[in-house]
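hiii, so i know i said id send this last week but things got crazy w the move. better late than never?? heres the sequnce for the chain we talked about at the cafe, plus the structure i predicted for it. fair warning i was half asleep when i ran it
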Amino acid sequence: MAASVAFVEYPKCSTCRKAKKWLDDHGVAYADRHIVEDNPTAEELAAWRAASGLPVRRFFNTSGKLYRELGVKAKLDAGMSDEEAFALLSTEGMLVKRPIVVGEDFVLVGFKEPEWEKALL
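okay and structure toks below
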């Protein structure tokens, strides 16, 4: 059983609510963090990306209104650096893909049950 993890979420997000219920149902201890009120810093995001092994694009909430309004996909396609991406993500929690679970030696982005079971159970 994993030690307590950080659960970074937006409480109104249905996927986050489903993920939180999954954590509760499986007895996983977590510290809750509101992604808008306590937005991840560029440094945290860089560390999480490194720990997750995922491309920086996976940290963007691509279905969000703000993502489209800011034309982020075009900026990424045009070669936005990881540093620029983390700086942009750190300005607004609604740009960040959620939920994020941060463990001692892993980071999960989004809610995919098989990944969560493997890392958390």
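btw The two ends are 6 Å apart (CA to CA). thought thatd interest u
miss u guys!!
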